[in-house]
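// run 5 | inverse folding | seed 20
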């Protein structure tokens, strides 16, 4: 997509007005009418096509722009399919249930906020979904905090921080895979590179949560006991269920391609599942496509474990195709190029280009409230600038996650912000100052840009 040639050169005013109209349309639909982002993006595509036709750009050129834009996401879409099968197979094998159970084992009467943060980190990485983590174990922690009469705002901040740590760093996460694929970076190389800013943010957040934790005795622990009992009732909590995870880690360390790594771990997980449940071949195929369905009878456990499958990825796949198609039109009509030409002189150093990308990701989250678009549009707008100053794409992928993925829950009218507020019954404004991991990530990525530390440079030879 980044090599799409403009078929016209609009004036700066026209380009600016079109961007404002697109932002207004998406904000109006998403925040005002609680619409899924697909529809306002489709409206924006029609708006751009109408503008192109008005400017006498041949329809075929506009269509080619749509196709070229969408084609940039085929790699991500292919990986999403394998993520869907991996999640469902890890549910079948007991890998994810065992990881969640081990997380609950860490609950102690002391350092409550710190423990909440660590457990949600573990669960978030295990299932790769921040919202699912928040809606299940997060709700349990809020109930415990309420019973102990301690700060719900800090508890919610710890939940959000841990859940989005998992969303950012898990190989099962759609945002993690989207960022790495759109920027053309190997998935596990991307995760490794993010550690330079993520681990310091993790450690600093953990320390602050530990300091803020009250010295009260843990009460209402039956909520956690209920979770643990429900997980044990599945009959899938065994040491051997971690074998698929070990395979994933080993292949990642060996730098095997992401698709092969995900496929190998999926196959091993299916084999492991036969140690405690004999699925028919047709059942396996159905679970890999439609996802695993839990039948423990415990609502929260079933909600946590019923997930995965190729079908579960279709929402994200549709959004990626539409967003990238819109991006293709923005480039075909020369809108992105025109806007960047006005501010290009500001991005001459590592620090300035990284700061610009971070502010763009934060801006998209703030103005549009959509997590995926903050990654996609930042990548589309800044890849060429990173190349010009000599920075590898994995730097941009990291910035997109540091200032895109984890910032969305901090915006009250964003998709994640609205969801979390409704689920936890804690307003975004209340937990905002205590979501330390989400606040530190964009700060640390900008600091890395201005100091030049942890950056990867293009070989000039």
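// decoded
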């Amino acid at each position: 997509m980044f090599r799409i040639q403009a078929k016209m050169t609009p004036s700066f005013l026209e380009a600016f007005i079109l961007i404002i109209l697109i932002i207004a349309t998406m904000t109006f639909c998403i925040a005002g009418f609680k619409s899924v982002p697909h529809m306002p993006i489709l409206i924006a595509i029609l708006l751009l096509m109408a503008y192109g036709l008005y400017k006498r750009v041949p329809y075929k050129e506009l269509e080619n722009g749509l196709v070229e834009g969408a084609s940039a996401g085929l790699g991500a879409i292919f990986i999403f399919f394998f993520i869907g099968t991996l999640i469902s197979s890890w549910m079948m094998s007991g890998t994810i249930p065992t990881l969640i159970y081990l997380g609950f084992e860490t609950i102690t009467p002391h350092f409550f906020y710190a423990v909440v943060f660590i457990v949600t980190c573990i669960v978030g990485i295990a299932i790769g979904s921040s919202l699912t983590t928040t809606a299940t174990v997060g709700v349990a922690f809020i109930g415990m905090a309420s019973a102990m009469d301690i700060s719900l705002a800090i508890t919610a901040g710890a939940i959000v921080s841990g859940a989005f740590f998992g969303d950012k760093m898990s190989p099962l996460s759609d945002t993690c895979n989207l960022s790495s694929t759109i920027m053309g970076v190997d998935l596990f190389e991307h995760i490794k590179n993010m550690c330079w800013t993520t681990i310091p943010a993790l450690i600093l957040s953990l320390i602050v949560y530990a300091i803020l934790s009250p010295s009260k005795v843990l009460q209402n622990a039956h909520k956690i006991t209920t979770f643990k009992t429900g997980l044990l009732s599945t009959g899938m909590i065994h040491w051997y269920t971690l074998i698929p995870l070990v395979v994933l880690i080993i292949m990642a360390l060996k730098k095997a391609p992401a698709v092969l790594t995900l496929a190998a771990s999926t196959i091993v997980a299916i084999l492991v599942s036969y140690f405690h449940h004999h699925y028919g071949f047709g059942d396996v195929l159905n679970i890999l496509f439609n996802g695993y369905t839990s039948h423990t009878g415990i609502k929260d456990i079933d909600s946590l474990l019923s997930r995965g499958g190729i079908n579960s990825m279709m929402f994200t796949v549709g959004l990626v195709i539409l967003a990238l198609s819109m991006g293709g039109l923005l480039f075909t009509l020369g809108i992105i190029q025109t806007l960047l030409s006005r501010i290009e002189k500001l991005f001459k150093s590592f620090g300035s280009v990284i700061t610009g990308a971070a502010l763009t990701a934060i801006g998209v989250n703030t103005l549009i409230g959509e997590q995926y678009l903050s990654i996609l549009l930042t990548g589309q707008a800044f890849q060429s600038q990173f190349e010009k100053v000599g920075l590898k794409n994995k730097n941009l992928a990291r910035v997109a996650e540091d200032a895109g993925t984890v910032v969305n829950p901090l915006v009250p009218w964003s998709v994640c912000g609205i969801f979390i507020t409704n689920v936890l019954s804690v307003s975004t404004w209340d937990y905002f100052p205590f979501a330390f991991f989400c606040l530190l990530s964009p700060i640390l990525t900008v600091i890395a840009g201005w100091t030049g530390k942890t950056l990867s440079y293009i070989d000039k030879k």
